[in-house]
Specification:
mainly alpha; 3-stranded antiparallel sheet; single chain
């Protein structure tokens, strides 16, 4: 009975909080031109760039010659979808579909949280955490991508096939959801998930190749990207400007990047750290001995955190991914990532202060901008390290020490020896 009251109260709280916060986000989006909200920079991504790509995609080709097109071919389907919504402009339809994806994530987290032994903390974190990014989530397609990753994780144990298919579709849209399968339980579940992911990805990519021209053109633009100013490497270079480094900021490949001496070296270091992170995750996977219902969730969050902090680019919308994965972790009472989720929330709030509120300070490399980026990226780095440490420890077998008991007087029973390895 108590459990029922807790679930009912939690569901009611999420049900009230979601429309209230989303109405606030819509209001902020309507006032996007305010200087404190970015002066129109947030909404411009949809109203100009996405809509321009829509015009190209509608003619059966990817924008191969556009250096801003850096996304896998599945992104084309997401950007074409608003054109199928009748009675709305492209911008209105895009926002409506983004809200629908947001609602889908919320419903999935609530359903997962109301099962026996689960928690509604995940639904609460997503519902209350996403508005920390103000209007930004409504003007990027990362909510839709996160929805596919969330569905993959929440269905993985009950239906590895569905989990693998969702992960593959997400990977075709933005790459990182493939990491959702990293922690799939060994045995038939993992084999089934990866088999269906491979098959789904191959079929979907084949269809996109038939329908569109130049489906892999994004690889050229990704390879040309440098060190974005908001990344960990960018923060180091921005600080170096105060020590006499002669580099400067330049807008290229769709973001503010730093150009100058030794930038290539910093980019190479970032790529090397990403490779090291991948190696650590492989070692964890090989050596892990304990699996719980939360292990796939925790592994996905850890992997995306590691790849985020070592990336040459850390855009503010990346926090949407981390919020979604943190929320999935918190649906389980067995998760090892609770303190990591708190750090993700803190980093999300700081990301909003950086962009759109004080982005000019970051671009100019002022001490205010540098310290804000140092704080945000420092928290993300701490979250990544803590996440991996806790994931590693949770995977180690728990060995109970031998317990000896003295036999009762008059008893010929030998002392009990208990060794339990789970």
């Amino acid at each position: 009975m108590n459990r029922l009251r807790v679930n009912t109260g939690g569901v009611l709280g999420v049900t009230v909080l979601w429309p209230a916060t989303r109405a606030l986000m819509l209001w902020l989006l309507a006032h996007d031109s305010a200087p404190l909200l970015g002066g129109g920079a947030v909404a411009r991504e949809v109203s100009h760039l996405y809509q321009q790509w829509y015009g190209v995609l509608a003619h059966g080709t990817f924008p191969a010659d556009d250096t801003l097109w850096q996304y896998p071919p599945g992104a084309g389907a997401v950007l074409l979808a608003p054109g199928l919504v009748p009675g709305l402009t492209y911008f209105q339809a895009f926002v409506a579909l983004t809200l629908a994806g947001d609602a889908l994530v919320t419903v999935a987290l609530v359903r997962a949280g109301t099962r026996a032994g689960r928690s509604l903390r995940g639904a609460a974190l997503w519902t209350g955490g996403l508005p920390l990014l103000l209007q930004l989530p409504l003007a990027r397609y990362d909510v839709q991508v996160t929805a596919l990753a969330v569905l993959s994780l929440l269905t993985l144990t009950r239906s590895p096939r569905a989990g693998g298919a969702c992960a593959a579709l997400g990977a075709l849209v933005k790459g990182w959801p493939a990491l959702a399968l990293l922690g799939a339980p060994r045995g038939p579940a993992a084999r089934g998930a990866w088999t269906w992911a491979t098959a789904t990805g191959a079929v979907a990519l084949g269809l996109l190749t038939v329908v569109f021209r130049d489906p892999l053109s994004f690889l050229r633009q990704q390879g040309g990207r440098g060190v974005q100013i908001e990344s960990l490497g960018g923060t180091a270079l921005n600080l170096a400007r105060h020590a006499g480094w002669p580099g400067r900021e330049r807008y290229q490949y769709g973001s503010a990047e730093l150009v100058g001496p030794n930038v290539d070296t910093v980019a190479t270091v970032c790529l090397a750290l990403t490779a090291v992170s991948f190696g650590l995750l492989v070692v964890w996977r090989v050596r892990a001995r304990r699996w719980s219902e939360a292990t796939p969730f925790d592994a996905a969050l850890c992997a995306v955190l590691l790849f985020t902090v070592t990336s040459r680019v850390i855009s503010p919308q990346y926090m949407i991914w981390l919020l979604g994965l943190s929320a999935v972790c918190l649906t389980s009472r067995h998760t090892s990532q609770r303190p990591v989720a708190v750090l993700v929330l803190a980093a999300t709030a700081l990301s909003t202060v950086v962009f759109p509120m004080t982005y000019g300070e970051v671009i100019d490399g002022t001490w205010t901008g540098c310290l804000l980026m140092l704080a945000r990226n420092g928290i993300l780095t701490a979250a990544a390290v803590l996440s991996f440490v806790r994931l590693w420890r949770a995977a180690r077998p728990q060995v109970k020490s031998r317990q000896r008991t003295e036999p009762r007087a008059g008893s010929d029973r030998l002392p009990d020896q208990v060794v339990s390895i789970s």
